[in-house]
Amino acid sequence: MNSPAHRVRHRLPPARWPTREDAARARWFSPIRIGRQLTAAERTWVPAMVPWRATGDGFVTPEVLDWYARFARGQPGVLVVEATGIRDVRSGPLLRIGDDRFIPGLRALVDLAVLHLPGGGLLRDAEKLVAPLALVEAVGFGVGAEWLLSALAGRRTRAALAAVLVAAPVLLLPALAWGAAGRLQPVAYPREWAAAREVMAADPVPGAMLVLPWHLYLAFPWNGNRTVLDPAQRYFTRRAVGNDDLELAGVTVPGEDPYGARLAPLVTGPAPFAPGLGAAGIRYVLAFKLAGVERFTPRLAGLAMVLDNPELSLYRVPDPAVAHLPGASGRGPVLLADALALATLAWAVTGLAMAGRRRKLVSSRRSGEGSR
User: Fold this and answer.
1) Residue 262: inside a domain
2) 10 lies in a domain?
3) Is the residue at 344 inside a domain?
4) Pair 109, 139 in one domain
5) CA distance linking residue 75 with residue 114, whole number of Å
6) Contacts of 23 (CB under 8 A, 6+ apart)
7) Residues 224 and 312 occupy one common structural domain
């Protein structure tokens, strides 16, 4: 073995652990666009592998779930499932998807992704993404119904078709009948809510608002004790911070609000609220007088109560720190979606108005001069 006569020793640079800010600026942890509709939260990627943990018939096993759970807990940007067979033949210990009998196990794999992967909540709340499509379909349904009625001859035939079209939404969505039966109806917010909003709006000191009890869904007496999504996030002008986790029977699906996740240890722990809330940029604590809120009352010592009524109590946090509010700057896509919705409505109204106008046949006296 040949060894150099004079070895060159290079001094190692001083080691330093990256800070949170360094990691946030790193390209590795920055989002990346994949195709036209998919964006990964970061650029870490678990590729498709062949773990050989399924049954010989291709069913999901506990070993398969443990295998993917280990990667999912690391929260990669993309987690690719192994090659999955679609033919009805034995595939060895590889997953299969070619028959309904494989659905229960694959559903458990999807549930695992919802629990651990960033953005997995979209699989749970994907119905919110069809709202623009529903608007377009509603307009198209009306235009199509008008065309069908005008194309059919006979008064009885049109009347029968009109009855079918009116009943179609309820037949296709039986749950819609509950709305017609009084289950779905508008309610007015209590005046105590408006008083709290005015107090916070008049305060020039910035800061967010913590909402208690610490649940995503609440049941208010003024709403007939129906369970609804916490309306504080939409009613009050300040940034409302609450529990974003979806609490189900036997399982809790983690939320995706970084601000709520940051404050969860403080809210669920035993320490007083005052020191931690100020450092986190919280200016107010809004406590609805519902079941479970009483356990937070002793920990509110040190906060100034500025409002107390039968519906709620409002506390002010002294001198909150100026903190960046995660998720507070997302108005652009919302405003764009609102503009598209208004444009669609304007287009629909214009089309209906044009269709309602009587058409006149315009003729010219000169049309027959060419034949003379």
Assistant:
1) yes
2) no
3) no
4) no
5) 11
6) 29
7) yes
* Closest C-alpha among 333, 356, 334, 352 to residue 344: 352
E strand intervals along 161-245: 208-212, 217-219, 227-229, 240-241
**pTM of the predicted protein model:** 0.55
DSSP bridge pairs for 304: 316
pLDDT digits (tens, 9 = 90+) for 166-190: 888 778 777 666 666 666 778 899 9
298 with 241, same domain: the answer is yes
Same domain, 231 and 277: yes
Give domain status of residue 143, yes or no.
yes
Residue 44 to residue 27: CA distance in whole angstroms: 10
pLDDT in tens, 208-257: 999 999 999 999 999 988 888 899 988 999 999 999 888 877 777 777 78
Structure tokens at 127: 């119905």
How many whole angstroms separate alpha carbon 64 and alpha carbon 82? 10
The residue segments making up the domain with residue 147 are 128-174
Q: Are 309 and 209 in a shared domain?
A: yes
Total residue count of the chain as it appears in this document: 372
d(C-alpha 232, C-alpha 312), whole Å: 12
